[in-house]
Amino acid sequence: MAGVGQDRAQRAVTGRFVGRRVVVTGGSRGLGEHVVRLLLAEGARVATCARKAEPLEALRRSLDAPDALFTQSLDVCVPERLERFVEEAASALDGLDGVVACAGGARGRGITEASAEDWSATWEMNVGHVARLVATTTSHLRVAGGGSIVVVASVSGWKPGPQAQYGSAKAAQIHMVSSLARELAAGGIRVNAVSPGSMLIPGKRWDRMRQEDPPAFERFRAEFPGRELVQPEEVADVIAFLLSDQSRGVTGVNLPVDKGQNAPTPEGY
After folding, report:
1. Mean of the pLDDT values across residues 179-199?
2. pLDDT at 39
3. How far is it, in rounded angstroms, from Cα 4 to Cα 201?
4. Could you tell me the residue range of the domain that residue 32 belongs to?
């Protein structure tokens, strides 16, 4: 992904995040990696985590200034592990100014097949992870005089599609943001959500469909008025905007970055 960093460095708004310290969960690949690289290119110091150590180490090795990145491998769903990472990140970065909740996921299939454990795991990956991340980072943001929290939700959180456990969890994230924005405003903390549409990420579902089943991919493209899926760097740009002072008047919103997508999956509905 070195090309991503080089391209991002060329496009960066010089110095927008110089002196800023940001935590990003799920930052080793996909959208999270784009966010991390963008913030670093624009001068931030960043702490990120992911389940596997190898992609995090590969990310560090690809950077021109690896000392600006603090990493740990962990499962954000493990009790107290995420909280410990936040405290160690805040210590390593000497405080926090911003937070991006990018880690997430889903388990299980349709309602008659998904188990109670599938629902619980999906909820914890999304809602529980965000709640604990915000609860742990809030004190550090207040010490810094305020800050910005961005939660990566999904088009599936407000446009129906399978599976229900994932859409329900993402809808809960969106509601949580509107509530937390009011609760934390007195401390100078802004809270917003970004809802990406279906992103074309190398090696992921839609990229595999494009390569393995071109007719199905062409049908899916019809869900987009411009017939183009969302690029992760387009979402990263919006996340960076919400972290920056350029959005200082924005809080409690859910900002779709979906290119006007209709159904969030090829199954429609």
Report:
1. 98
2. 98
3. 12
4. 13-254
